[in-house]
Structure formats: C-alpha cells, structure tokens
Design a protein that fits this description.
- By secondary structure, the chain is an all-alpha fold.
- It has a single domain, classed as Hypothetical protein af1432.
- The protein has helices at residues 3-13, 17-37, 41-50, 55-58, 67-75, 80-88, 91-94, 101-121, 133-141, 151-154, 164-177, 179-182.
- Helix 5 (67-75) runs antiparallel to helix 6.
- The model has no long low-confidence stretch (mean pLDDT 97).
Length: 184
Amino acid sequence: MTRDEAVALLEKRLENDHLRKHCYATEAIMRRLAREFGEDEEKWGLAGLLHDLDFEETKADPSRHGRVTEAHLREAGVDEDVIDAILRHNAEALGLDRSSRFHHALAAAETITGLIVATALVYPDKRLASVKPKSVLKRMKKKDFARAVNREIILECERFGLSLERFAEVSLESMREISETLGL
C-alpha cells in the first residue's frame, strides 16, 4: 500500500479531524524514528498513519480496536509487520505483548502525541513552535495534566533505545515539521 492509498483510506474511514491529525502526527514521529534507527521509513510511517483506522468504529469496545484494521489491511496486502505493530499498539486490550522496537515505538509515538498537543494548547499562541522539549518533560511529571495520556507507554521509548529526553525532542521536532497539517 502506498502512502497515497493509505491517506485515502484514512480519510474515508475517519471522520473526526482531531483523530486524523493524531494519525498524521504519529506517522511523522514514526518516520523520524525509522530514520534514527535505520529502519524502513515507509513501513514505520504506514503503521503510524493507520494505527487508529478503526477507532471510530471500535472506541466503545477496545477489545476490537486494531482487529477491524487488521482485516482491512490484510485484504489490501499490507506487510504483516505493519499489521502486527498496529495490533500491538493496543496490546493491553488485545491480550498481546509488545516485544520489538517497532511495537514499542508505535505505542510510545502514538501516546506522546497527546502530551505534546496538550502542552501546545496551554501556550498563548497554541503553536508547536513555542513548545520546548523541557516543557513536555515537565508536564510528563504532572499526573493531573493530560490525565488520559499513559506515561508508562511513553516510557517504553527506553525499550527501543531512546532516553525520555531524546524521545520528547525527536517527537516534538517531527510534529513541528507538519505543524500546518496539525493546525498547531
């Protein structure tokens, strides 16, 4: 599946603009991580872009989240590694484990997007350009800030070879590169 085909599928399956932006942000981070680790940028980007493809359909039943996407992507002939990583970003609800760099990277990347967006939104200009990595790290420590963001999953960055400080920096830089798309 090409990126253009993936974008068309995303636009068709997801109506919520915030959710689409979350997927674009996750894709940007995953592409950057792939470059950082010498991994397949297209594969990692595709996983980031499509990881929540079925979220609107499955949000009431987390035990199905990822499974509906799995069926669509298998039908489209998407690489098994991509499908597996997408399933494992929701490992807790599906009774799976994350065991590879790819699995941990997708879970951490899609989770940190929420913390970064929430951080940007408390700034007067609400722009990613104003956010510093240290601000993200400071808010990471505040459990009452962006409560829905699972800090333990973000800390999985250490399992794929990045310190929290470096992961926050890489993630923020990646999202800044697409700030127009994100509206931030």
